[in-house]
Automatic annotation (TrEMBL):
Protein name: Aerobic carbon monoxide dehydrogenase (Quinone), medium chain
Record carries keyword Oxidoreductase: yes
Keywords assigned by UniProt, alphabetized: FAD, Flavoprotein, Oxidoreductase
Gene3D superfamilies assigned to the protein according to its UniProt record, in alphabetical order: 3.30.465.10, CO dehydrogenase flavoprotein, C-terminal domain (3.30.390.50), Uridine Diphospho-n-acetylenolpyruvylglucosamine Reductase, domain 2 (3.30.43.10)
EC main group: oxidoreductase
Lineage, broadest ranks: Bacteria, Bacillati, Actinomycetota, Rubrobacteria, Rubrobacterales
Organism: uncultured Rubrobacteraceae bacterium
Gene Ontology MF: a single term: FAD binding
Length: 283
């Protein structure tokens, strides 16, 4: 289908984008890579009257070493993350997952800020940034603020973003040496969205598991931490992973749709949690 007619503005800076959002009000939308927004406009599930294009904001396209964390500009494309040396060295799960998003054309256009702001719980990056306990920097008319990923995702496609706010940066902690990670994704067709995905970040401590942070994709309205598994694995032997993973679907609320029933999603969450944690442990 063809989208409803809309006007088009080019943002020359973040402040300009914020001004334009203020001028055009609630019917305007920011456009980043367009790989989620344009498809839903074509389905007429969204009909913004004005698109404000962030595409020329090279100032928001970077990966920087922030000391104990990596700072990633919101307009950094998935493809940039896939090949970035800092990401490979300090937070490989981000680059690895960027390589699993759709196909190369999606990766060349889509942005990290866009996929998080879209707030789709079947997106892969929301779970990864949640498992990393990352945070987002958001700028609006009142200035800048920071919000943890866990508080950013509020409901299905609903985030903490105000009407006149722009995500400018995403911060992820550098993983300590010896920290293992994995993102496992099950989809029915290659390059498809996750029927279920599991992001795991696991720290080892003297042969035991020090801590495990696990976030699930497509298991509810937001990315969901597998809290019961995390608790069971804290200080546990790596041999406890299989049993602990049986609680992966506790506290989730998966839906049934064409891709899978809710029950099958629960099963996938248990199986893929075990696989992801074991891979993170190098087993
Ligand atoms: C064929 C196809 C397959 C795909 N497969 C996958 C997949 O397997 N896994 C997956 O996770 N994703 C997948 N995607 C989605 C892809 O990752 C998108 O790039 C991403 O979801 C949105 O990023 P974007 O930069 O394109 O944002 P846009 O589509 O431009 O914007 C999305 C939303 O975020 C808002 N927004 C964008 N940037 C900002 C910002 N800086 N501040 C505030 N609001 C902002 C927009 O207003 C809009 O509401 C797929 C897309 C396609 C078309």
């Amino acid at each position: 289908m063809i989208p409803m007619a809309f006007d088009y503005e080019v943002a020359e800076s973040v402040d300009h984008a914020i001004d334009l959002l203020g001028q055009h009000g609630e019917d305007s939308k920011l456009l980043a890579g367009g790989h989620s927004l344009i498809p839903i406009m074509r389905l007429r599930l969204a009909a913004p009257t004005v698109l404000i294009d962030l595409g020329r904001l090279e100032e928001l396209r970077y990966v920087r070493d922030g000391g104990d964390h990596l700072a990633i500009g919101a307009m950094t494309r998935h493809r940039d993350l896939l090949f970035n040396d800092l990401v490979k060295e300090h937070c490989g799960i981000v680059g690895w997952t960027a390589g699993l998003l759709g196909d190369p054309s999606v990766q060349h256009r889509g942005t990290l800020g866009g996929t998080l702001s879209h707030g789709d719980s079947s997106g892969d990056m929301p779970s990864v940034i949640t498992a990393l306990e990352g945070e987002l920097t958001i700028k609006g008319p009142q200035g800048e603020r920071t919000v943890e990923a866990a508080d950013f995702f509020q409901d299905y496609m609903m985030t903490d973003l105000g009407e006149q706010e722009v995500v400018t940066e995403i911060r992820v902690p550098k993983l300590a040496p010896g920290t293992g990670w994995s993102y496992k994704k099950f989809s029915r067709r290659s390059q498809d969205w996750a029927t279920v995905g599991v992001a795991a970040v696991v720290e080892r401590s003297n042969g035991s598991i020090g801590s495990a942070r696990i976030a699930l994709t497509s298991m509810g309205a937001t990315p969901i931490r597998a809290a019961a598994v995390e608790q069971a694995l804290s200080g546990a032997s790596p041999d406890a992973v299989a049993e602990a993973s049986q609680s992966a679907d506790e506290g989730t609320n998966p839906s049934s749709d064409d891709a899978a029933s809710a029950e099958f999603r629960r099963h996938l969450a248990r199986v893929f949690t075990q696989r992801a944690v074991e891979e993170a442990l190098g087993r």
